[in-house]
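Final report, results section. Input specification for complex C-07:
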Amino acid sequence: MFQRQFECPSCGAPVIQQHAASRSIVCGYCHQTSHILPAGQLAAAGAQHLLVDYGSWLSIGKTVSLAGSEYLILGRIRMNYEDGFWDEWFLRSQDGAEGWLQEDDGSFVFFRQTKVLDHRLLLDEIPVGVRINLGSGIGEVFTTSKSTATVEGGEGELPFRIKPGDPADFIEGLQKGQILSVELLPEDHIVFTGYTISLDQLQIA
Amino acid sequence: MEPIVATNSQASAKQFSCQGCGNALHITHPRAQVVACQYCGAVLDATSETHQIITRLGAPEKFQPYSFIEVGKKATLDGKTYQVMGRTRWKMQYEEFWREGSESGYSTEIWLYDEWLLMDERRTYLYLVEDKEGYWISYEITPDQPMTLDHSLRLAFFQNHGINIVQEYGEADIVYFEGESNYHLHKGDRISFASYSFKGDMYIVESRLNKQGEVTEVEFFRESPISRMALLEAFGEQETIQSLDDQRVIWSFVRLVSLVVGVVMSLLTILSFGPGKTAYEKEVMVSAIGQEGYDLDDFKIPAKGLYKLKISLNTIANNSQAYLMAYIMDSSEEVLNTVEGEFYHESGVDDEGSWSESELSETMLFRAEGPGAYTIRLFADAGGAANSAATVTLYQDIMLTRYVLIGAILAFLIVWMAQNRLKQLPAYTPYRFK
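Structure output:
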């Protein structure tokens, strides 16, 4: 089992990485977000930020059963936007499958990364409520919303670099009865596909 | 260093003063985005420390709830306990589909409805829609054929629904808000919507519009009706349920009694068309009736009541007239009532062929004030009935048709009224969560 220990660049506390592919990790003591550098060091990113607990049933270290697989919750990222905020919980199963559980006002969507777009989208040019062709083998998507959010902060470890305060654009849509989310990150435009799931269906342990 | 488990501070109930009127406000929902002041109606930001006023909507006293649901009340639905967190009143201006025979179209309507936000102990939400016609539970859905309204005025979110005529489409905006909301309210926010019905549920596409009228979000909902009784039970309104049950029993009883009375009165109405029972009958030759009249034999009237006196001629010469009059008198020869008739028989031939017309009898109702001996005096102007016989008949057990008919109508009106009251009383239909 992979495990690597760092020293938090902010407070010096031990920070343990459990997932080899993680790119960001948040100190459990001072809540400093750090990027995991290829050289095996941590670089502080943004200010320390403690995510307020609004009574979620999920937390780092718990497991959830989804679609017959058991996932360990490794991290979360909280996004702020004009209507409030939502949390994205980063999940990883024992066989290495990764997923994201989006928690927004008591509703949950389980996402899996499906594609990385081979071209760039401009949020301003994406209309909402119409069918657009995303290309890259994805095809037609009915857009349901777009938003510019801000990374409020993170917890645990995450598979990409985050920095509290950074903006992030999102496009959501529907395709063949599934929910599609396109995250317009500076590095990549990543497409996730998912479906809604109720709290009753999540077997949280 | 020992590892420490991160203990994030948990958001809890907050108390602060309204920026508008200074009254004390509480936020009980940790994820509340906005909170309304129940005194001045100001809507405040629940997330910041300053709690600035976002917008001012209508005064609370102008937007009372339609029924028993109130912010703060608890309900048990689908085995979960919910608390009512907030209420948003929407005003919509829309086009409503109508069909009459082979014609159809849309009429412009204005309607108000409340959207109640309920939260359970696990912080999942339920949206309850209420208007003056009923209640619906609203669910967000993921359609397999997402679409918005276009000029065809047809929608089909799901392949198995086929293509459906849009029942309603238009725009809505918020006119009032109370309690707390898990989503932000923005001044000037509007939604446009279109809906169709399928198997008793409404399927709605809702587009949120910004101030420039651009679509910023599209959501799809299914609204499923829930009966008032099911909600009363969910909210534990036992007193109201008992009162409604009592009303149901009373109105059912009124309906049954009125129905029985109505049926009896109807039968009596039919019977009242009959002549009644003959109490006395006498035939006199018209030629025997002199100038001073002709007194028939005395007869006894057995009891106080309504009687019918009939005078008739058995025949009259063609194209002639005769006149008969009868007094009914008591033993002191006081005239109680009179019946008279101009009798005739006419016939001829015109363009349509031969015709004849005659009037040979006349009746009169009278009320006898008590039993006793009575007599009838006949007068006649024989005319063409000189060789005819006049018959005087007295009928007893007479019912006035108009009275029993009015009674029957009134009874059936009460049945109809009771039936309507029963229909208005909420029926209990168990709600199945989907």
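The two ends of chain B are 51 Å apart (CA to CA). Residues 348 and 355 of chain B are 5 Å apart (CA to CA). This concludes the modelling results for the funded period.
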